Amino acid sequence: MNQTINPDKIIETYELAKERYSELGVDTDRVLKDLEKISLSIHCWQGDDVGGFENSNSKLSAGGIMATGNYFGKANSISELQLDLTKVMSLIPGSHRVNLHAMYGDFGDKYVERNKIEVSHFQTWIDWAKRERVGLDFNSTLFSHPKADSGFTLSSKSREIRNFWIEHVWKSREISVEIGKQLNDTVIHNIWIPDGMKDIPVDRLSHRELLKDSLDKIFEQKLDGNYIEDALEGKLFGLGSEAYVVGSHEFYLSYAVKNNLILTLDAGHFHPTESAADKISSILPFVKGILLHISRGVRWDSDHVVILNDEVIQIAEEIMRSRNLDKIHIALDFFDASINRLGAWIIGARSTLKSILYALLEPWELLKEYEGKGQYFQRLAYLEELKSLPFGAVWDYYCYFKKVPIGKDWIRNIETYEDEVLKKR
Questions:
Q1: Of 80, 251, 286, 405, which cross-links 410 as Cys (Cβ 3.0–4.6 Å)?
Q2: Tell me, what's the pLDDT at 69?
Q3: For residue 199, what are the domain limits?
Q4: Domain presence at residue 33
């Protein structure tokens, strides 16, 4: 680890910050131990613009997803993507996971239909995960496929199309279990579908009844809960589904509550005036768990690179204030092809971890006491004072402690990787 910052200065400024936070009853040493326990699930699809490694001519935009930009150096193979992910995780403090989509299998020179995928197609990923000592999560891929071109998959009025996608999800869940067994871990398997309409439908209910029926058939497949937990992800709208999304937030919330499943909340999948953070405490008492996809919505796009803004800090605060970390899983979900892809990954991951650290440094017990006594002026005053405390010094010390670059040092690291690796692709 090459640092341009004097380690003695890092330690010195941390000790000063530690003293400032201790005045509020916050033990920064304990906070950093708590932060070490937080594991992000880092999405593989940022590295190749959500392309995958299937041998097909399917278009990404078929399904309401589009990566914009043409920055050089995207991963063109599993080995290149794994190399990039290894580099990324070496520059992010802590131990983290990798989130796979079903279209990222090792299919060789053959085209393997989605309802025929097997765990053997992901053995390359499992072996890599063992070497890197990282966990894996999994997603069924119900977009970028001819059988998604109509705009409907699990809610299609075609029985043949519905059955095809049911079989695909069955296979994805079986693969998730086998990954879990080989890694001795629990894999979060997430389902998102692109189903919807561009303009105003007159029959919303029938598609939702079909989606319910398809999900019922999917979950008739009973699997070992030690190795898989299932999550359902809704969305307000997508490209080509501006007027109507079958798998809405309300639909999946209802289904998850009834069937004891995890509900996925993607920060970019709601109206800009909605708070994804506020939904956490509203939903948590009723569901098996929550999977958070940390993203950034900008107008109509839901997947900009995560930055340390108010929205992500509010989400982190609600996670920590819930005191239910065993029920909350944190993943990243964004893609940007207009900038260095590794840089985007690292900005998003480090910003998310910074937000969690900021939330952990909150004197929650004190603030809760003020709130309980109706001392709202004091509560608000402390929340404001926290904004100017030396949170950055604690973050720098955490990076130093975890032996990753401090401050801007990681940027040069990626610039070197770009010159030595990405420009040669």
A1: 405
A2: 84
A3: 38-360
A4: no
